Amino acid sequence: MMKKKKASTILAIVTALSVLAGCGGGSAPAATGSSTNGGQAQGEKPSEPVAISIMANLHTPEVPSDMIEKLLEEKTGTKLDIQWVPDGTYDEKVNASFATGTLPQVTYLKNAASLVNMRDAIRNGQFWEIGPLLDQYPNLSKLKPDVLKNTAVDGKIYALYREVPLSRQGIIYRKDWADKLGLSAPTNIDEFYNMLKQFKEKDPDGNGQDDTIPLTDRNDLIYGAFKTISSWLGTPNNWGEKDGKLAPEFMFPEYMETMKFFKKLHQEGLINQDFPVTSKTDQQNLFITGKSGVYIGAMGDVSSLHPKVVEVNPDAELDVQNKIEGGPKGFGIWSVPGYGSVILFPKTAIKSEEELKGVLAFMDQLMSPELGNLIYWGVEGQHHQLEEGKVVPSEDTKLTDREVKPYQAMQVGGPLTIEGFYEPKHMLPVKAKAEEMIVENNDYLIEDPSASLDSKTFNEKGVQLQEMIKDGTYRFMLGDLDEAGFQAVVDNWLKSGGQQIIDEFNVSYESSK
Amino acid sequence: MLQSPAGFGAERKSEIMSETAVKTGMRKDAPTIPESGRMRRIVKNRAIYLMILPGFLYFLIFKYIPMSGLIIAFQDYQAYLGVTGSPWVGLKHFERLFTEPMFFTILGNTLLLFFLNLAFYFPVPIILALMLNEVRREVFKRFIQTLVYIPHFMSWVIIVSISFVMLSMDRGIINELLVMAGFEKINFLMSSDWFRPMYVLQIIWREAGWGTIIYLAAMAAIDPGLYEASRIDGASRFRQMWHITLPSIRSVIVVLLILKIGDVLELGFEHIYLLLNSMNRDVAEIFDTYVYTAGLKQGQFSFSTAVGFFKSLIGLILVMLANWLAKKAGEEGIY
Hints:
Number of helices of chain B: 18
CATH superfamily of the largest domain in chain A: Periplasmic binding protein-like II
Radius of gyration of chain B: 25 Å
Strand order of the largest sheet of chain A: 2-1-3-12-4
CATH topology of the largest domain in chain A: D-Maltodextrin-Binding Protein, domain 2
CATH architecture of the largest domain in chain A: 3-Layer(aba) Sandwich
Low-confidence stretches of chain A: 1-5, 7-46
Structural class of chain A: alpha/beta
Shape of chain A: globular
CATH architecture of chain B: Orthogonal Bundle
Oligomer: heterodimer
Mean pLDDT of chain B: 83
Number of strands of chain A: 16
Largest sheet of chain A: 5 strands, mixed
Helix content of chain A: 40-55%
CATH superfamily of chain B: MetI-like
CATH topology of chain B: MetI-like fold
Number of strands of chain B: 0
Order of helices and strands of chain B: HHHHHHHHHHHHHHHHHH
Mean pLDDT of chain A: 85
Shape of chain B: flat
Largest interface: A-B, 49 and 34 residues
Largest sheet of chain B: none
Number of domains of chain A: 2
Structural class of chain B: mainly alpha
């Protein structure tokens, strides 16, 4: 009996506490909200710092130290409130904050696709239109009109953007393995296939066992190997023109060819057997530990892969290659629409045009050479050295990952639009080569014609419908579906709303011509 | 707590309450006792009613008030217009759900996984508890008990990752063993056939030990005199288990079964989401994962609320059905 009484007392206390805790949790965001507003009111007095709230994408496992944040505050006379959200759940966080009206003043979106999902909200006037104001700012006015146009909704500009190279795609491979087997860098799809085959059969790591997985890939049809190989084979980028009309990439024969190529790789054991469920970390680990010899993705990754590969195997050498021809059209490579992510300004957080101008003034300063370099390269002497006017990043990547790298996500514009943006001096020759090839890719781009087009059905169901195609593609590559089976998936896609998407995109395409 | 098995719920608790109530009532004589019997009881037992208050508030604030959010299932909810400003669309979202090509797959998957869960997982803790109950050495029993609880404290992420490493086609230990034994490799992770067994086994591994707690508590409350008497009559251990232990915990089993059915559609979003991939979607997609893709990934709050609402309705119907059946069978039920 005593025991029971004691237990119920504890239970009662715990319940009471959890109720209190619940209330506490609920009131906390409200408190932050009001303090932000208070800050803004104070901001009108010139002496007080302007409060600016920001939501940014965190690509590192930990929240950065506030060193650069403090420097930014000092130089711009602001009080920053930066909310770091991990990359993996970024879109969900934005959607949830949007639904509850708690987006901060400066909202970075994750990528180009996230902007597509926001179009309806933008059209409904949830975000400030900034196009007409940009001319007033010396730095923001340098953003490229072509790229801004790609971010536009119904021809109006609502977003600033962060630059990324148009196409970073290529292969990174083990040069020491290739040299050992007398292979040169592949220049067409057959040579590429041959390289994988040789890596599989000729025991390039010399351990006497048939245990090499030539190509390492992951559960991503876009940033993994699939889309890049589909470009080599001449598949359009998301949408392509067929008899004068736009059609989705998976209705083109080249897409089928790509799937067949992967099916062959999978059957012959030239790719990791679990690739549809392999994470990026596991994918890179296969390469780093020397189990696998070819990696397809952003060529710039070579700078982060190289030290890790060498740590495991000191004799390893890496090389990069971009131009691999796969068909009669010659080499081509898919590109992004000129921006990596965009920045929106919600009306729920920014109440007046005056306030908007204050926020834009801050964004303008972020694009100045001084601050643009600061958030990208960090502090001279600590995070980088200047040699002949070029940046040599510190080799202590742990330090730069903690103090600088996360802030790169807050960049506005980029090397093409910030005057006096430091060029890096690459100590690693292969990284320099990768950068050259990224520039070279610009001459062979396959652009996405649907980037600035709009479809209501796509906004509503696009993601779910795309899952159908994604599932079908994987199932074909793993031999679960044959050609007729995949065609059935496409037919189902058309029936479930795909046909509407095609029609709507074509209407939008005609009117934009 | 362990001394009071949940199954002996209602009756015993009210007994205790009225006992205490009588005591408090006698000690303090309230100055004015209202005419109405109910009010008088409340005033008389105010200390006890006060103790209910935190729990009552908890349910009100965290369970009942949020339920009002369900109305967005009948609106075209737009975040900036809010609940009051969004246009009403009647049953549009439900119509969309029922005409969605995936609808019957999802409904079927959800129900099937639930029944598998019930058929294969539910009896395991009972059997385990019976076995533990028969262990004579107290130290050994406690040791085993603790050992089987431990997996419960691991998150699904860990459990799924461990299975992933073990079942991988690229050097997963299970597949290596299969090859060594002369079999073909099996693609466990990306196969529709293996998803369900994998799901149920992972649940059993994680939850079976934890599930024994309430049964063991119920068994501890069985009158030892019954066992003694049966021993004198010459009953074996097995006979005792069959004729004394099991009937004594029957009401606990029934209550837990009904509660379990109430969770019908809580199949564990996290768990399934982690196991889900392109190759097993046809058997693994359930309402929860679907709500996640439609609602959070694409921001269709109204539609996903409608889906969630529908899911809860199925749950409610099943609970009522189970409760009705329990009463038919002469058991107490939960209400």
